[in-house]
């Protein structure tokens, strides 16, 4: 079995695209050609986790930059100033690492949204085409901590770019201050040319449709009968230490295997290590290393850490181990996963609830979204352990 040893090449613009991805590339490039003289236009790419959104986005960007920097005098896209924006430091590292290997891409072509907005406001210069990956991570309210004083990232990006292409998945919204909805996104289409393209083919999880459905349902709190699937290694554990030992063995054999957890164990950015303990298992949370050039998922040493949704979102693993922490329990009455927001340790996720009609339900939605993200990282296998004994027992008999 040939497994992937790095995530970097999986976003390379040189990768062969599927039929729908190729169609999308042509659709976006054509959209940019038609609207390159307009004041404002918006193209929305929708798709669930693992449908290849970032892959095709970087291929689109490479096509745009190749034409922008080419010597073809009559090319309508020649000389345009284009950018990729992503509000995810680990993804930004990945994109910049890829740019260093491509002749028509520059590391400076990639930025965080607040940096792009503040630089544009300072210079007064608009970009021509801006592609936004992980647009569900854009802020929908001011955030002083991140030096964003305006009301909405996308609103400001549309102000400072003539054509904006966004990649969006509402099931990956992780914070109240990024509380996106389809309706909110729809409001930005009004008054400007817009198109939408939906990707629905699963490229990450190499499993049968029944297994993909089982994982997707679990990410929504539903517990379905576990399918037999020789193409995907799906395991449920009653011992977290055993799960970790098996995951380490897979990592030694295949590489790119990591342990992840829901954000249910204390963690503080104070320079100290913080540990997750489950029975005989004890391992530290991922360390914050902003100066590290490699993304967390690609660093060999991170097999000795537990990753969070924030370090793994957007990345692929060969095998993913996932700890379902104390915020998740077995709701026997409804035979599903219940959610306890008070046990969720990511308190920053629930800051800024103004304008959210039902904050308690929104909290549960955020927690399940985060669960969905970490469940869909493994290409070839998923190993699960639940903190709640009743949930553990229920999953073991699926």
From TrEMBL:
It comes from Gluconobacter oxydans (strain 621H) (Gluconobacter suboxydans). Residues 41-388 form the Schlafen group 3-like DNA/RNA helicase domain. This is Schlafen group 3-like DNA/RNA helicase domain-containing protein. InterPro entries: P-loop_NTPase (IPR027417), SLFN_3-like_DNA/RNA_helicase (IPR018647). It holds the Pfam family SLFN-g3_helicase. Signal peptide: none annotated. Gene3D superfamilies: P-loop containing nucleotide triphosphate hydrolases.
């Amino acid at each position: 079995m040939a497994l992937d040893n790095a995530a970097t090449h999986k976003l390379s613009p040189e990768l062969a695209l599927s039929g729908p991805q190729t169609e999308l590339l042509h659709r976006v490039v054509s959209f940019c050609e038609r609207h390159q003289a307009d004041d404002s236009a918006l193209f929305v790419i929708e798709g669930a986790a693992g449908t290849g959104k970032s892959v095709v986005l970087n291929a689109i960007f490479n096509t745009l930059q190749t034409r922008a920097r080419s010597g073809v005098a009559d090319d309508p896209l020649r000389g345009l100033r284009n950018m990729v924006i992503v509000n995810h430091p680990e993804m930004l590292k990945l994109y910049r690492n890829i740019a260093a290997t491509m002749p028509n891409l520059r590391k400076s072509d990639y930025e965080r949204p607040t940096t792009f907005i503040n630089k544009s406001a300072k210079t007064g210069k608009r970009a021509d085409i801006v592609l936004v990956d992980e647009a569900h991570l854009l802020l929908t309210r001011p955030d002083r901590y991140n030096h964003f004083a305006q009301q909405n990232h996308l609103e400001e990006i549309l102000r400072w770019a003539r054509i904006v292409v966004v990649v969006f998945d509402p099931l990956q919204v992780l914070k109240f201050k990024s509380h996106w909805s389809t309706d909110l996104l729809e409001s930005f289409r009004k008054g400007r040319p817009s198109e939408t393209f939906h990707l629905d083919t699963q490229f990450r999880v190499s499993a049968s449709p029944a297994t993909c459905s089982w994982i997707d349902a679990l990410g929504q709190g539903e517990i379905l009968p576990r399918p037999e699937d020789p193409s995907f290694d799906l395991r449920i554990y009653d011992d977290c230490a055993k799960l970790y030992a098996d995951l380490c063995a897979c990592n030694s054999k295949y590489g790119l295997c990591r342990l992840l957890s829901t954000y249910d164990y204390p963690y503080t950015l104070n320079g100290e290590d913080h540990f997750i303990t489950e029975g005989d298992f004890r391992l530290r949370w991922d360390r914050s290393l902003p100066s590290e050039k490699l993304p967390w998922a690609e660093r060999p040493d991170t097999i000795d850490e537990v990753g969070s949704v924030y370090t793994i979102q957007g990345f692929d693993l060969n095998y993913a181990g996932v700890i379902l922490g104390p915020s998740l329990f077995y709701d026997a009455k409804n035979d599903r996963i219940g959610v306890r927001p008070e046990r969720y340790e990511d308190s920053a996720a629930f800051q800024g609830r103004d304008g959210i009609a039902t904050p308690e339900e929104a909290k549960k939605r955020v927690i399940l979204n985060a669960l969905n993200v970490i469940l869909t990282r493994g290409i070839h296998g998923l190993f699960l352990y639940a903190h709640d004994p009743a949930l553990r027992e229920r999953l073991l008999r699926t």
